[in-house]
Specification:
The structure is a homodimer of 759-residue chains. With 759 residues, chain A is of the alpha+beta class. In chain A, helix 4 (330-343) crosses helix 18.
Amino acid sequence: MRNLIICVLTLVSFTAFAQSKDFNQYVNPFIGTKNMGHTYPGATVPFGMVQLSPETDSVWYEHEGRYNKPVYRYCAGYQYEDQTITGFSHTHFSGTGHSDLGDFLIIPTIGDLKLNPGTADKPESGYRSRYSHDQEFAEPNYYEVDLLDYNIKAQLTTSNRVGFHQYTFNSNDETHVILDCISNIYNHKEKNVWTFIRIENDSTVVGYRQTNGWARTRTVYFAMKFSKPIKSYGHKKYDKSIYKGFWRKFDETKNFPEMAGKLIRAYFNFDMKEGEKLKIKFALSPTSTRNALLNMNAEIPHWNFDKVKMDGQKLWNEELSRIEVETLTKADKETFYTAMYHSFLGPITYMDVDGSYKGLDQNIHKAKDFTNYTIFSLWDTYRALHPLFNLIQQKRNSDMIESMMAHYDQSVHKMLPIWSHYANENWCMIGYHSVPVIADAIVKGTYEGDKNAALAACVQTSKQGYFDGLKYYMDLGYVPEDKNSSSVSKTLEYAYDDWTIYNLATYLGDTDIANEYLKRSTYFKKVYNAESGFMQPKLSDGSWREEFDTMSTHGQGFIEGNAWNYGLYVPHDVATMVEMMGGKKKFSKHLDQLFTMEIDDHHIAETEDITRDGIIGNYVHGNEPGHHIPYLYNWTGDDWKTQERVRMIMRTMYSNDIDGLCGNDDAGQMSAWYIFSSLGFYPVCPGSDEYAIGSPLVKEAIINLENGKTLKIIAKDQSEKNVYVKKIEINGKKINRNYLKHDELMAGGTITFYMSKKR
Amino acid sequence: MRNLIICVLTLVSFTAFAQSKDFNQYVNPFIGTKNMGHTYPGATVPFGMVQLSPETDSVWYEHEGRYNKPVYRYCAGYQYEDQTITGFSHTHFSGTGHSDLGDFLIIPTIGDLKLNPGTADKPESGYRSRYSHDQEFAEPNYYEVDLLDYNIKAQLTTSNRVGFHQYTFNSNDETHVILDCISNIYNHKEKNVWTFIRIENDSTVVGYRQTNGWARTRTVYFAMKFSKPIKSYGHKKYDKSIYKGFWRKFDETKNFPEMAGKLIRAYFNFDMKEGEKLKIKFALSPTSTRNALLNMNAEIPHWNFDKVKMDGQKLWNEELSRIEVETLTKADKETFYTAMYHSFLGPITYMDVDGSYKGLDQNIHKAKDFTNYTIFSLWDTYRALHPLFNLIQQKRNSDMIESMMAHYDQSVHKMLPIWSHYANENWCMIGYHSVPVIADAIVKGTYEGDKNAALAACVQTSKQGYFDGLKYYMDLGYVPEDKNSSSVSKTLEYAYDDWTIYNLATYLGDTDIANEYLKRSTYFKKVYNAESGFMQPKLSDGSWREEFDTMSTHGQGFIEGNAWNYGLYVPHDVATMVEMMGGKKKFSKHLDQLFTMEIDDHHIAETEDITRDGIIGNYVHGNEPGHHIPYLYNWTGDDWKTQERVRMIMRTMYSNDIDGLCGNDDAGQMSAWYIFSSLGFYPVCPGSDEYAIGSPLVKEAIINLENGKTLKIIAKDQSEKNVYVKKIEINGKKINRNYLKHDELMAGGTITFYMSKKR
C-alpha cells in the first residue's frame, strides 16, 4: 500500500529535486527511541508544529501511594522497551535532554470508562493499553499501532498544524475517546496551570491549556473535530478550582459544553460498529482557539486520511532529496536519511496559517514575510545543525534568524534567544549561541534580513551584564568560578561567540566592533593553566581554584563535559590553542590520550546524557562539547587521525537500530554531525566559512542546493577500510589544504575524495 | 480649588445639557459605604473600565494561624468603619451582593519594606496604613486620603481605562511602591491562577493576572508608568510554581525584569524628597499588555493629574445633568444625584480604545460601531436600571444590548447573558433577564440593532433545556421543587420573561412566537395554590409540597425573598394575579398586611443582603423581588396606598448618609428605583411601555432627552406631607389613568402632578 501511494505521489509531483526517488523508505523513525536518543516515532511533517506521537509511560500516576514518572527517559514521550501506550499527544521534543510538552493526550477505549492512565504493571487499572512492536509501524508522517487491550487500530498522520487520528474499531462495545488534559511530559506534576474546553457542536471541541513546565508561561490552543457526532460526553476535574456559576443550574460533569479548571480529563462517547473508523482532526495554535480552527480548515478541509499522509510524505521526500547519497550499505543509507529526518524535525513552525504567533512579550504578533519558528536549543544546534541548514535549508535558516530577531525585539532583556520555547526563554545551558548562528548565516550569505540590525542584536546580547557571569567576563576577561558555576565552559563559549561577532563585524565593515570583539575572543587564554596543561577554573582574585579533577564533569568549571573534553573548546583559534598547549606534536598526543585513556565507572556515571556506548576512551560523543574534537588533528599535521577517528565514530556511535544514537539527538545536532561527517567535512568553527576535512562515509552524494546548483561529492575507492583521504579535487583540480570554503560548496560542481586504506 | 476647576470646566465646555450647573457637588460617593450598600468611594468615570478605590480590609491575611476575610462585607473593597487602608486597587463592583475583582493593589510606603498586608489590629505588621475620615475626601472621579502611618497624601483619579495615582511624600525616607498581585476581592484565597509582570524600562511595567474567582476564567492586563525612574525593584513569590530557567543565571528576585507565578508581590523603590510627588498611570485592558499601553497613551498622554480629574468630572457633570431636579431639601438632592451617580457606575466599558475585547469564547473580538460593556447583573438591573437607561441613556442601552448580542453570538450555550462578567458567564440568580432588557428597549424604540435577530436570541435563550429547570418548565408549565430549587421564583420569572418575548414578538409582528409565549406567560398560575392563597412550591407529580413556610426565605421555593414578597411577582399580568388571589379588596388588604406584619428575628437573620433597616413589616426593600410591590396597589383601586408607601420608602430606605442604602445597591438597581420613584412613576413591567404612577419626591425635574426634547415634571404643591397625587396633566391635559406611556415621556413637554396631603 505504501509503495502504491508513493507511486501515485511521484506521478503527480514535480520539483527541481529528485522526486522520482523514494527517500522516505530509508527513514526509520524508531532509531533513537531506545535509551538515550530521546527521539519519538510518531507522525510529523518537516519542521511541523504538531508532533503526534505515542506516549508509553510519560504520564504521572500514583502507584502504591507514590507518584511515578522517570521523566528524563520520557523527554520524547516514548521508550521502545515499554509495554503499554497511554495515548497519543500532539507535541514532542526530538532528542532533547530536558523534558516538556506532551500536550493533549488522546486515547480511544472501549468498555468501562476509565479516566486514569493506570500503571505500566497493571494496564487494566486505567485507560492505557498494551501494544506489541509486531503490530506497530512507523515511517515519515505515519505511525500505526494496535491497541491490544481494546482491539483498536490506531493510525496517525499530520499536516503542519494538525494531527489526524484514525481509529478502527473491531467490536461493538461502548466506545470512548479520552482527552486527557492533565497528561504532560515534565518532571513535576504541578505543571498544569489552567485548562479551558468548549464543546462547540456535536463534533467540534476547542480549548487551551496553560502550563508552567520547562517553559514558565506557555499556552497551547486547540481545535478538535470528530468525523462522527458525539453521542454524549463529560469530564472530571481533579483540582479544587471553583465554578460558582453552576450551583443550582447544571450538572457540570455531563453534557455541559464548558469545562475549565486546573486538572481536567474529558471523554467523548460514540457508538462504533465493528470495522468502523473514527477520525479526529486535532489542530494546534499558539494564539487562539479561533486560529486553531482556522489552521484546521486551511490545512485539512476534508476527511481523507490517506491524502494527509501522502501530502506530508511528499514534503518529507522533497526535504530528504536535498542530499542524495550512495552508501556502502543499505544500513548506512538508513542511518543517513534518518539523520536527515531527525535534522528536519526542528526548530518547529510557531505561527498560525495567517502568520499570528505569541511573542516573548506575551502579545500576539504577525510574522511578516517569514515563517516564525520556535524551539531553539542553541547550545546544541549552533554547532552543526544550523551550519547544515546554511548549506541545504538556507531559506528556512534565514527565517529562523528572523524568528530570533523577533524574539530579540520582544525580549525585555534585549537578548537573542538562549533556548527559546513557545514564547518563553528557558535560559538553558550557557553562552549566547544565537550569535554564531547569525554570524554563520551572514558570512555565508544566507540571511536575507537586515544584517546590521542583526549585528547590533548580537552586540547587545553579549553585553547583558546580569546574564550568567557576563559582567565578570567583561570586567575580568573570564568568569570566576567563585562567582558563577561552570566558569571555564562559559568563558570558552563566550570567547568563541565573541569571535563570531568579530568576524561578522569584519564582514560588515564595522572595525570598531571587530576590534572590540577580537580582544574578547582571546579571553580563552585567561583560563588556561600552563602548569597543568588544562583549561581550569580561576577565582575572582586571579588564582586557580585548588581543587581540580580533570576527569570529573561536576563542579570543575565545566558543564556536561570534563576538562579533557570541554577544555579543548577554542574552535575559532585552534592554532593558538595548539601552540599554547605545547605545540602540534604534544597536542596530537594529548588527543590520542583522550581517545584511548581508561575512564572509571564513577566518572561514567556522572557523565550526563550518555552511556558508556557514547564514549571512546574519555572522548564523549554522546554530548556536544566534544563534537569538534575528532577534527582537531587537522591542526597538528596528523589529519589521518581525524580521518580515522571520524570514520570510527560514524561506525560505532551511530547505527540504523532503535538504539542507533549514542546520546540525546539534541534537536538534530547529533544527526547533523553525522550528515556533515558522512559527506567528508565538518564546520569546526561556525561563523567562519570553512569546513574541516574529515573522511567521507558515503560513496557518492549529490547535494541539491537552493541556488539551483548541484554539488556532487565522490569518494573514489570508498570502502570500509579505505578511511584515509589521499587527495581532494574540486572540479578535477587538486587542493592542497585540509579545509573547504563555503563558496566552493555553493558553486556546485564536483568534489572528489580519493580514499585509501593507507594513511 | 474644586470650584475653580469646575469654573474653568464650564468655560471650555458646551453641550446640549445644562453645563453651567454643577451637579457633581451633590454627589457623595460615601453613601452606601457603611454596612450593606456595598458601594465604593473611589474614583471612576461614568461606565468606566477602571474603578480606582481604596481597600480597607479585603486582603486575605493569616492571623493567629487562620485566614481572615469577612468577604461579603467587602464586595466593593471598602467599609467605612474600618481603620486601615491596605491599598488602592483598580476594579470594583458597585453595590453587588457577590464579591470579585480588586485587581492590582498599589500602596506606597516608607521605611522598612513590608510585603505583607498586615492585620487590621496590628497595621504596623504589614504595609497597610491607618487613615482617618477627617483626612479623606471623595467626589466624582476623585478620592483623596492621608496614609497616616507613612505621612503620604494619596490622590486618585481616572480616565475610562486608566487609573491615575498621585502620592505626595512628606519625608525623605526610603520609599516603596507595592504592587500586590496576590491581593484580591473574593471568598476563597485560591483565586489567583497566574501572574506575569515585565519591567519594560526604568519607568514602565506591564503584565497580567488570571484569576479563578467568581468569574471562572478571567484575565486582566495592565500597563503601569511611573512619573520618575525606578531606582530598584524586586518581587517575592509565595507559591511553588517553578522557573527552571533562572538556575545558575540570575537572582530572579531583584532587578530581574520578568516575574511570573501564581502569587506575586512586587515592589519598586524610589528616592523621594519631602514634598515631592510620585505619579502613577495604571491602564487596564481585557486583551493584552500592548493594548493596555495603547489605552494609556490614548487616554492620558501627559502627567497632568488635575486635567485627568477635571476631564472625568466634566463627563460626570454631563451625565448627571440628564436630569435636573429641584427637591424639598438639599439632602434629597444629594440622595438623588448620588443615586444617579450610582446608576452610571455600570455596566462598565469592556474594550480597548481600538474596540478589542475578550469574548465569552476566550477569543479576541472587535466591537464594530458599538461600545462593548460587561458586568450585567441582570436579575437586579432589568427591573429599573435598564428601563432608566431607556429613558436617559438610550444610546448606551442600545450598545449594552449589542454587547449582550455579542455575548450571545459567542455563547456555546446559545444564551444571552445571565450575569456576564469579563468574558465569563457567572450564571448568578435566576431567569433569563437579558430578554426583558431587550424587549423593553425594542418596544420603547431604543435599540438600534437587528431587532429580529434580537428576538431570535431571546427565543433561543428561553429554550435551553439544561438551564436551571427550564426543560421542566417547558414540559410541565412550572419548575418542580423536587427537581430544582427556588422553583416558584424561577417559574414566576420565566413566565414574566416569556411575556416580554410575547410582547416583543407582537411588536415585531411575529404571531407564531407571540402565541407560543403568551401561553408560557400564563405559567405563573400553575404555582398558585388557591387554598393557601400563596404561590408555593409544586412537585413534579403535580402535588404541592407539604412543608411550606410563607415567612422563610430558604428552601420554600423562593430565592432571596419569601412567599409574601416573591409570591407577588406577576408584573405582566397584575390584574389576573389580583383576581386569582381574591380580587382587588382582598389583594389590597394582603398588601397592607405585608407592609405591617411583625417579622421575628429568626426570619430577619435569614433574609439575605439586608438588615432590619431594609424592611417595612415583612416587605423587603433591601432586595429586588419586591421592588414592584409598592406600586401594586394601583391595580386594586387604592392608588393612594402606593403613593403613601413609595414616599415612605424613599424617606426611610434612602438617605444622603454613609449608610443611606438599606441593602446592596445591586449595580444601580436600588438607585434606579429611587430615581424613577422620585420622578413619580416606575416601570412595574419592563418590556411593556407603561410606567405605574407613584408619588414624586421632587418638586420639579427637567429630563434632557437624547432626542433633543425636554420633559419637565412638576409636582405642584409638593411638600413632605403632600404625598398624594390628586391629578395629573400632560401638557395641561388631564389624564384619567394611573400609568404613563413611554411615548408620552419621549415627546417632551410637561407632566404636572397635583400633590395633596389628602388621599
